[in-house]
Design a protein that fits this description.
The complex is a heterodimer. Chain A is an alpha/beta fold. Chain A has five helices and seven strands, in the order H-E-E-H-E-E-E-E-H-E-H-H. Chain A has a five-stranded mixed β-sheet with strand order 1-2-5-4-3. In chain A, strands 6-7 form a two-stranded parallel ribbon. The longest helix of chain A has 12 residues. In chain B, strands 2-1-3-4-5 form a five-stranded parallel β-sheet. The chains are: A alpha/beta, B alpha/beta.
Amino acid sequence: MNQNEIIKKIENEFNIDKKDIKKIDSKQFKAFIKNSQIIDFLTYLKNIGFWQLSLITAVDWVDDNKFEIVYNLVSWELEQNILVKTDISRKNPKITSVINIWPAAKYYEWDVNEYFGIDFIGNPNNGKELFLENWDGPPPMRKDFDPLKYSKNKFPEKDYKNFKMKKQSEVIE
Amino acid sequence: MNTKELIEKIKNIVRGHSLYMLHYCTGCGAIELPPTMTSRFDMERLGIAPMATPRQADILLITGYLSKKTLRRVIYTYEQMQSPKWVVGFGSCTINGGIYYDSYSTINRLDLYLPVDLYIAGCMPRPEAIINGFKKLISMIEKGDAKGWEHYIENKKWYKKNQKKALGNSLYTTR
């Protein structure tokens, strides 16, 4: 089955708009889906051969006031990658966990939860720490977080007021 | 000069001639160390050899940036080492943060948290610069100038305050 046939099959069987599926290259394509349909769509994709979940990540579109969750699925039989994208609101970021479809999603979702502050309903690790020890700021991967300000406040820099560069003749002995 | 001072002077000269180095390779600086240690630049002709454990090492070489997580482990490592001990900051990341100056999780200045005896500047320093730095450290040890470990004991309160500010209360909890 080539890529066009797979896209046609998904369009027919899942009732998805033609403009919502886009090709990236000969091995990859992406699909946009409403956030209420995400579990159905991922279950369907798993059944037709995209059984490996290789990544869950999020993109912060701060000007559009939304988060985009990206599921990256791989099919080794069809030799295709699919990126499934869904939008959620930035004010109250919540989405259903896919932990029941792929148990490994626990860690991807935990990671996204820690760095973006998105709640995955059903994931037991929401709010626990994974990478950041004793974190005391807002989620660091959000675009409105200012890392320079945080760093200056928390880790003081060297004072260069009385610093004088040495001449080259002084450095080389 | 009394006998105690004389013995201390002789000790310093002897210390400068047998140094074992623990290299804490967190950043990219680790890549410059294998040629420094092995036959091309051959650090051992200066009397410095790599050591695997902190308890027997004399020099703690910190190569590159330290994040909050690794800083905690470096402090454990440093406190396990037996005095006299010396810290060498390697690369510009240990001096002022280097290219990670605006990162939310890497520290900017190492000397707030550990007493640094010598910095080797550069991003990355070449093996020649490392050898030059070690020669300087050896002469400092022989003269008795490298007293960072005594400074750490005398100013423990100040160091602990800085460490707590950066790491929170996690300093002595295991996880």
